[in-house]
Amino acid sequence: MKTAILTIGTEILFGQVVNTNAAFLSEQLQNIGYDVMYHYTVGDNPGRLEKLLGIAFEDCDLVLTTGGLGPTQDDLTKETICKYFGDEMVKFPEVEEWLRDLWKGTGMTWTDNNLTQAYFPSTAELLPNPRGTAPGFRLEKNGKVIMSMPGPPREMKSMFLDYVKPYLESRTDGRICYKIVRTYGIGESALETALLPLIDGQTDPTIATYCKEGECMARVTSKRKTYEEAEAAVDEMVGTVKSLVGDYVFSCDDEELVEVLGKILIENNITISVAESCTAGMFASTLCSVSGISAVFDRGLVTYSEDAKKKELGVRAETLEKYTAVSPEVAYEMVAGLAAKTGSRLCLSITGVAGPDDLSEDKPAGLAYIGLRYKGEVKVVELRTRNVDRNNNRRKMVLRMLSEAYSLVK
Amino acid sequence: MKTAILTIGTEILFGQVVNTNAAFLSEQLQNIGYDVMYHYTVGDNPGRLEKLLGIAFEDCDLVLTTGGLGPTQDDLTKETICKYFGDEMVKFPEVEEWLRDLWKGTGMTWTDNNLTQAYFPSTAELLPNPRGTAPGFRLEKNGKVIMSMPGPPREMKSMFLDYVKPYLESRTDGRICYKIVRTYGIGESALETALLPLIDGQTDPTIATYCKEGECMARVTSKRKTYEEAEAAVDEMVGTVKSLVGDYVFSCDDEELVEVLGKILIENNITISVAESCTAGMFASTLCSVSGISAVFDRGLVTYSEDAKKKELGVRAETLEKYTAVSPEVAYEMVAGLAAKTGSRLCLSITGVAGPDDLSEDKPAGLAYIGLRYKGEVKVVELRTRNVDRNNNRRKMVLRMLSEAYSLVK
User: Fold this and answer.
1) pTM for the complete prediction?
2) Whose C-alpha in A46, A122, A311, B397 is 20 to 30 A from the C-alpha of A273?
């Protein structure tokens, strides 16, 4: 069923609040086979809300709203929806009773503006709100359905899961399954080119490629009668995707590269240490976002100064002088020294130019050398990222370190 | 000027991505005096996009779009906007040249679908995108203005700040000045209470307090005929704010705490080293986001294992055994050992429970001990953050380390 999500609240238009309600509802609806066509956001303004209701119902049969159900004067959602549906507002005595009981329970002073929360369109089906004071409601007319929920995410989520979702599931004709195939070491256009035979003329499952933070992925989606059928179709297509670009795939289950790497290290008890210069602890910090990594992560050394490189890792003064700190030779000595010091099974080092300024003509910002030592073998990889800014350069360097480490242990 | 924000991307309608772009743009527009009336979101679908363009321009004169500018087939924003404005797509040779140069620089293989990124409506003013491969553009007709930016937040933000905002500021009737007074060590309600005499009955300048990522700030805004008048009014009010809560203020110019700290360290040549356990390099990495910090940052040690704490920092086995790794005693020995090893003027250490699980009943997730050594004196601070999740806990710990370091050197 074609669906629109309409979030109501001036605080969203002011940018004070990020619209997480729309994201939550979208994902939920997607999973139960509803097609979300639009998100709309409007302030607490009846005229503009009414306009958007008209627009939303032009090509959608279901509209979910959040926000604007509270007792204060600027919350006029209910009245506006009521008017749009040609209904009239009436007091629901059971809600008034529930509200008065609530107030008694908390010891707060009852003020009559709370009574507005007992009024609803006369034909509304109410949606209980055990976590707040504003019930939601469902209204239907000529095949058009609106379901209104409160704005606070905690109240909205529990109302959706307990009362909205079961109703919607009882009305769907299909179930959707999607999986996200994540890759490393391949750009978006190269990924799309490789998958073009699958993308061209696709019907179901569909494939879409996209990029996020320097990493490219493909989303495979199917809609079938049952979730099981949809999942089987998706799994088959994921298999085909892997047969085309399998070398670049690290997860078919939307995991982060660092999670996948961390799991492999933990499961195989591969101890790891790292010596960082330009990334300055970002690799260690990123790796340690994985819960349980303490079982294998031994040590990180941020050897920013030349003195630190010499003292902590035994990098030789001659090497620093002859080749400078940003060189494959120094990356090599860093990782060798780290391995000798820690004995970790996997050791990484990095030295480079974080930027934003170039170090010299032949040492531009974004240049880095990554040393890796695993199973007694040492290799050094050169990385040239496009100089964007200091932190972006560093993030790309860390991503490359994760990729190289993953390549070794996968 | 009445403004609508139109975000384009199926991933938003799928709920895979929270629409932070709309929040960022809303806040920015608000600050420079534009009224955001609506947010619209639509997938990569030309028909529906065209419909929304029509709706948005019904009562808005300015529409900002994000997303859908990439090289892949589902990115059709430009063509649709071009059609809506009655223009035609032409190749911009300078963009093609720039793109081909970019590809040469990175060594990636050029594929011809990248060429679509060189096509724009013939009357478009281009908006450079130094952080990505898809330039944005501005198009105007009959007093209606559209400005299209890429979807990745990093690219969009820098394009907005560098090219969109200056243009919009040049078109407003009044001039707005706002400054953000940033504080540490004070909660939002305490900050609001302290500023209440100023907030009550305010007209211009206005003051609003808000909290983000565990840090509270006050925005002081004025709209006057000239920027200079607005700035003078804001500066006067900022002075009043400082007279009330000055002890907590670290910047009146919207700087990050880490920037302010980094500058002080560099200017005063205060060398710094850090030994991290639970934050695992996040402090070092955060501090090293400051350009030029290499002049004073000597060394970071991520001593995750007990063995590393002993070998790198000389923490005694007895101390670890008697008090456990998460204890003020270990934080003390860590920072003392670090100072002895590096001789840095400012040394920090941290040991704690990153979470998400508690270590034990009396060592809950979010508990940390921070050791500081400066001018020969050592102190240990206890921090108990509310356990949200592993990375959130770690970020709060780093923020506290920055605060404590700032308190010592300010």
Assistant:
1) 0.76
2) B397
